Amino acid sequence: MRKEKEDESRRVREEMRRREQERTKKELESIRIDEAKKYAQSLVDKGILKPNDVDKLETIDTEGLIVIQVAQLEKEKKELSERLRIVAKRVDHVERAYRKEERPLLDKDYEQQQKTDRETHERVQRIRKETARAEHTADVATKERLSRMVADYNAYREVLIAKKAAAFAKKKEAAHKKIEEEKTKRRNAIMKLREEERQRAEKEERLRKEKEAEEARVAAGTFTHFYFLFLVSHTIRTERAAEEERLRAEEEATATAAEAAKREAEEKAAAIRKEREAERAAAMERARLQQQREEEAEARLKARAAEKAAPLRAPVAARAASNSGDNVWRRPGASVPPTPTRAAGTPPPRSQSPAAGAAPPRFGAGGTWREREAAKKAAAASGAAPPARPSPRPGAPATLGREEPQKDEDGFQPAKAVWRPKARS
What we know:
This protein is an all-alpha fold. Helices cover about 70% and strands about 0% of the residues. It has helices at about 1-45, 60-145, 150-220, 225-255, 260-310, 315-325, 370-380. The longest helix is centred in the N-terminal third of the chain and has 85 residues, at about 60-145. Keywords: Coiled coil.
């Protein structure tokens, strides 16, 4: 039963598919026939087909109609070419006949044309001569009539030229005067502007120099250095004032010169200013080197004083430092102690250069001269060496005033100027 139902459903589906295919085929055929009819009607409208031939083309499709159209066009093209050939031949025959008939008439026409041209030329020349003669007669009469006015014309012309020349000279003088006034105003404005710029530059330079001098004075802390900077600053200001005065005089002298001369003067002033800046930089560099040499000399003096002020208890301190083994250099033969020598037997070596970080005292860091004299007198009264000067500055390594013996009691040579950490509390 179920198989029969499946067969029936399959048959129904196949029947529907077949009907759908037939319907599609009929629609396509109908569309083809309609297109063929439309194309055939267009051929009828163009005159390629006759109206009676449309009913005979039921089995011809669009491609067949196109072939018929192409054949008809070729046929019409051939017929048109043949008609054109016949017409061209007929026109050629007619042209030949015309030329044959007009040949005897050309000589007569040429003679008539020559005669007409000669008469026309003679008439034109006669009219031209008569017109020229009449114009000449009129011009002569006009000249005789106007010659009586030449004297009055020349007199009036001279008067008019004199008036115009006077007015022109007056206007020229006024324009020249106005130009000179404008030049003077412009020159004064430029000079005033340059003077204001110079004063402003001098004021700024003076304030800058004063600020630099004040900073240098505060940083130096010594009268000698301050006086040296003052002299350098005064020299620089004097040179700059003289240079600016000279440049201002040159600018005033060349204010009315041409633009090229003005540019040349500005370039020259710039070169001179650059040279002066280089000289000032060299002077500042020399001052810095001089200050550095003074600082090095003062540091060497402090180092010598510190070496001379080393206490006699240095061997004990050196032995303690050696026993602690804290940052002390030992020789390779440390296992065999050499013969001990006295620490005070040989003087300590002189320092050839100040220690790293040593700098000149700032604002009396080394004490006043009264305090140093009092310390020397107290040391001489007690029979001991004079006390060492204070440390150059808080940031310098505290190695100059440290007790450094030549050798400790065990015969070891301790390192000099060795940094040791502070003992923790």
